[in-house]
Amino acid sequence: MHLATIDRHGSDVPVLVDPDRGVVPLAALTDDAPPTLLALLEDGRYDELATLAAKADDAAFTPAADIRFTAPYRRPRKIWGIGLNYVDHAADLSESVPDEPASFIKGDHTIIGAGDAIPIPPQSKRTTAEGELGLVIGRECRNVSEEDALDHVFGVTTILDQTAEDILQRNPRFLTRSKNFPGFFSFGPEIVPMAEVLDRFGDLADVEVSTVVNGSETRTNTVAHMRYSPAFLVAFHSAVMPLFPGDVISTGTPGAIHIRPGDVAECRIPGIGGLLNPVVAG
Description:
Belongs to the FAH family. InterPro entries: FAH, Fumarylacetoacetase-like_C, Fumarylacetoacetase_C_sf. One of its GO terms (biological process) is small molecule metabolic process. It is a single chain. By secondary structure, the chain is of the alpha+beta class. The protein is about 20% helix and about 35% strand. It is built from 7 helices and 17 strands. It has helices at about 35-45, 45-55, 85-90, 165-170, 175-180, 195-200, 230-240, and strands at about 1-10, 10-20, 20-25, 80-85, 100-105, 110, 120, 125-135, 155-165, 185, 190-195, 210-215, 215-220, 250, 255-260, 265-270, 275-280. Strands 1, 2, 3, 4, 5, 6, 8, 9, 10, 11, 14 and 15 form a 12-stranded mixed sheet that branches. Strands 7-17-16-12-13 form a 5-stranded mixed sheet, with no helix packed on it. A hairpin with a 3-residue loop joins strand 2 and strand 3. The longest helix is centred in the first third of the chain and has 10 residues, at about 45-55. The model has no long low-confidence stretch (mean pLDDT about 95).
């Protein structure tokens, strides 16, 4: 069962998604359902609710095609982004991969969901979209080992991380500003549990991540070509500060693509999902 949030009459409704049967609201499964997916992760109730969903009648489910998905949740404690994590992408920018992860934090005001518009800020003449694999923390961790790190990850998701690249190029100290305009972090629509990901792929190394614009311009690479693996990123950042349920680590992009109003940006990860957002003038 995947996690997602849908729009129902203007309200965000947390749901479970059965790829075969469709979507069921958490509130249809139990009278004391968590009000958000973030609350579900914080309470550690996924297994309970997934069991209830598996036993639910087919009539409780709505076909996913009839649903509008939104961002899985809006208020994570923090979002970590990772720059220059694919060696090939660093070479594109005429930069070397740093000796330690080049990480930064994004505010939750940047969050949008599938289908929401990415606004190009008037301050930027060159904004890029970057498809990325996202790690969603499921259990609090601090100073976790690399060996145990993925045990603290609930699952993965698709991400589009935007950058006002022309602002960043003026000065690398402008990283926070260039990454934090509204609409500069889209994620979802589904969060796929790590157990399902590992059952499908064996490990994360063969997961293929693509940035796609207008269905044709594509930059693709596999997790195996990351300089810093997902497990390392969790362990490294847990040594900086605690990671809490619902925190997101966006693991870096195989390639950034310049986006303009009228474009459609996409993060495509076969076996995980696809995330599309139209681009508009801010």
